[in-house]
Specification:
Blueprint lengths: L5 H4 L5 H10 L12 E2 L6 E12 L10 H7 L6 E6 L11 H9 L4 E4 L6 H5 L5 E3 L11 E6 L3 E3 L2 E3 L4 E5 L2 E5 L4 H25 L2 H8 L3
Length: about 220
Amino acid sequence: MSQPSLHELFPVVSSALAADALDHLNLPNQCLAPDVVPLSPAHTLLGRAFCLRAEPAREKRPAVPYHGLLRAMEHVQAGEIVVFGTGRSDAAGVWGELITTACRTRRVAGALTDGLVRDAAKLAGGPFPIFSRGTVPYDSKGRLDVIAYGEAVTLDGVRIRPGDVLVGDLDGVTVIPAEVTGRVAELVAGKCAAEDAFRAAVAESGSLADAFQRHGVL
């Protein structure tokens, strides 16, 4: 029997719901810094991590530019989110329009970086979700090199491993460790049901305290 997809596991999810579930599992530090935001308010993330790591380039004029990036991107799969660890570098935009075009063809689910991106006007108007700390015109060639892929990276103190689940929206990005994904999905479903009951109780009584006492969510 095939495993359910993430969209089947999480018919409704948000970064906040995922964070609440992880709090319940005593995993309270699974969200990225608040300056990692979507390029467009409409962009949301749900997918498994495909990890890259970049460092300052050793050569300003490389004989073979983008070598590490091109090699790494041959391995990303449909439904995965490219996680681009840069150590919060401001040196260059590590993501742009052309790499987005290639990823859309391969049905990649999005991109996330603790660095910067470029081509923002075109990307913000498109459907491909991109989360970053901001934008800059600089190209990565001669500034940042991809030196590793397919291994864990750390963004803002949160360790992200290949296969971990990312949930992103306007509130931020929450990282769900792969081994607790099923349990988080159960807790999210339960919280959604409790919140629906809370809304109904508030509509009936108008009392925040009464609704909280009855349903235990806020």
